[in-house]
User: Fold this.
Amino acid sequence: MIKLHGFALSNYYNKVKFVLLEYGIAFEEVVDRLPLDAALLAHSPAGKVPFLETEHGFLCESAVIVEYLNARFPERGIFPADPWQAAKERELIAFVETHLELEARELYSAAFFGGKVSDEIKATAQERLRRYIASFSRLAKFAPYVAGERFGVADAAVFVSLPLVAMTTQRIYDEDYVAAAGIDWKSYMKRVGERPAAQRVIADRKAWIEANS
Ligand SMILES: N[C@@H](CCC(=O)N[C@@H](CS)C(=O)NCC(=O)O)C(=O)O
Assistant:
């Protein structure tokens, strides 16, 4: 059986877990904490989670893992069969992960873990976050799901990352740039959070935080 390695605080881990649960793919979870030890670096070369263990070997990078799951379990319909709709889901995933999450991630240590980041990094990230959050608000539909009427795999990516982006800007710049761009992300989180797969992800994350604080 497929094994998902990582831990329940990681948004990228939770994205893959959400996809596995949502699309009914059987898996086991293996808790691997950071920093990964030398043996695990052979399986996740950058020392990051999540990574997947299969009968063929190990696979890292959450976007690649989701693509692998889509190709391996085509009957589950992770991406829509229509090439255009599938590309639009991928566009949203690339957007939220490359332009929003990765930029906000520069600030996580200061926003959430009592660390410090330089004013220079804050200023650079601020400019990019403003630009790309505004861009994302033009691309994303939230009608009511991120790509339109139906829940899709892009929602799993947005669900785990968009709140972090919003909370980061609130904490670092004293303004929720996501809400300021007209995205009612709290209502969206509530809607997606009603799905059983999302509820399990949230509950496990909460349990992880309680057990590790
Ligand atoms: N591009 C990677 C990013 C994964 C990632 O950054 N995971 C974080 C946890 S949320 C991590 O393992 N960080 C450890 C590090 O950067 O050393 C993916 O999509 O899987």
User: Anything to note?
Assistant: The mean pLDDT is 97. The pocket of glutathione is lined by residues 10-12, 34, 47-50, 61-63 (CB under 6 Å). Residues 83-105 form the longest helix (23 residues). DSSP finds ten helices and four strands in the chain.
